[in-house]
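Appendix C reproduces, verbatim, an entry submitted by the partner laboratory led by Prof. M.T., so that reviewers can inspect both the input and the predicted structure.
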Amino acid sequence: MMAQEGCRPEASEPGAEPAADPSVDPAEIERFAALAERWWDRHGAFRALHALNPVRIAYVRDALVAERKPGARNGAAASLKPLAGLKLLDVGCGGGLMAEPLCRLGADVVAIDAAKANVRAARHHAEEQGLAIDYRHATAEALAADGERFDGVLALEIVEHVADLDVFAEACASLVEPGGTFVVATLNRTLAAYALAIVAGERILGWLPPGTHDWSRFVRPAEMVRLLRRQGLTVADMRGMVYSPLAGGWTTSPNLSVNYIVHARKPGG
């Protein structure tokens, strides 16, 4: 094992089985747990997330830096550790595709998932990379009940998989420190999203395993704004994420018709 790069003192042991929490959909947990050993295969079941990850990392980094230093968004990449001193929570972390880069950017990272197999796979990969990330088998509701708080909370590509979105949003919002940041990314409930994410992505191109998404659970941007407002959060920014052949990858865009990402603030602090 490599010497660990400091993000947390050490990874914690998995918590109690969280399946009773109302946001957890056992069928979704089982689906992703079955793929746990494939998270870091860039050409496998999660290649779409690997492709999307650079734009997600940049957006989250810039949102957090801008909140810490208003007006600093364009200069966020100037420091090798721009997130140093921030305690972040990655909800539904999967194999750690976001947790690891956030750790490398200097943040103290707690990453949770309701599937034990995902936590095991994520912890193993982080140890191989020499990264000390606090991975836990837990849910947002469990951490909220324990009174934990974070400078930033991320819920990326997870809200379309939860059983009770209102309960999940309430738990996530309560985990954000006053003055903190919440970033959520998901899919819009449009015909374009159905065609691209499900028909093309799952059935034709095979970018995602069949059955990964349920179109009825996609959340329209206006619904997302209302959901966040009900939890006392203010939307600071919302952008689409689109694939650009000219750029050779994903980029942010005003086009919200398929994938989009939202930066919200919690008042106070």
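Residues 26-265 form a domain with the Rossmann fold fold (CATH 3.40.50.150). Additional entries are available on request from the coordinating office.
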